[in-house]
Design a protein that fits this description.
58% of the residues lie in helices and 8% in strands. It is built from 11 helices and 4 strands, in the order βαβαββααααααααα.
Length: 218
């Protein structure tokens, strides 16, 4: 019997995009269900009763929650084209940097478009500092995974479709501040698993503009 794989997601979410890229890399077929986050489906609430958040991967009726855990699960179940390194130390390092992305990128990026003035400038500085730290880890490698797209790449690349929103609202250029980051983005975008999965940055910006109205931060 074929696997039943369902992904509960919201299309611009950088967290859900991680699962979609990981499954695209591995050729996993799945049913995509876009959630209305203001009226969450009974299936989402039942599948993730603790956090009540997307994404949720449901594999043969069993839910897996939290995006980095989902990517690790995908990597273990469909274990061709591994995303995590085999070496335990390298695997630990990859998990560390993915956790760093998880804890820093979304928060800093969100504060850029939600704030103005000094608070926005502080968020921009923290965001650029994060990217520069990541550039130090990338070093001269093509990808964080070395010669192939790996776990840290999958954790970080979904934020690339949000870069336009951060730059537009924060009035700065990531290319100027962190050229190595943008060179890495372009390499990732050469992969179909990335280019065919990430939404258009302008479409993401429309969501940001809607959220700014909703939060009264225009």
């Amino acid at each position: 019997m074929a696997d039943e794989v369902i992904l509960l997601d919201f299309w611009p979410s950088p967290f859900g995009l991680r699962a979609r890229i990981a499954m695209a890399e591995k050729g996993v077929k799945y049913e995509y269900r876009d959630e209305n986050l203001r009226e969450k489906s009974p299936l989402l609430l039942k599948s993730n009763p603790v956090h009540k958040k997307i994404p949720v991967l449901i594999h043969n009726g069993k839910p897996v929650c939290e995006s980095l855990i989902i990517v690790q699960y995908i990597d273990e179940v469909w274990n061709d084209k591994p995303l995590l390194p085999k070496d335990p130390y390298e695997r630990a390092k990859a998990r560390f940097w993915a956790d760093f992305v998880d804890k820093k990128m979304y928060d800093c990026g969100t504060r850029i478009w939600k704030n103005k003035g000094e608070a926005q400038e502080q968020a921009k500085k923290e965001f650029i500092d994060c990217l520069k730290l990541l550039e130090g880890e990338l070093a001269e490698k093509s990808y964080f995974g070395g010669d192939t797209l790996g776990y840290v790449d999958v954790a970080l690349i979904p934020f690339a479709c949000w870069f336009y929103s951060y730059e537009t609202e924060g009035k700065f250029s990531i290319e100027e501040e962190c050229p190595k980051t943008m060179a890495w983005v372009k390499r990732c975008m050469e992969k179909e698993s990335v280019s065919k999965t990430l939404p258009e940055p302008q479409k993401v910006y429309e969501v940001v503009c809607f959220l700014k109205k909703m939060y009264g931060t225009e």
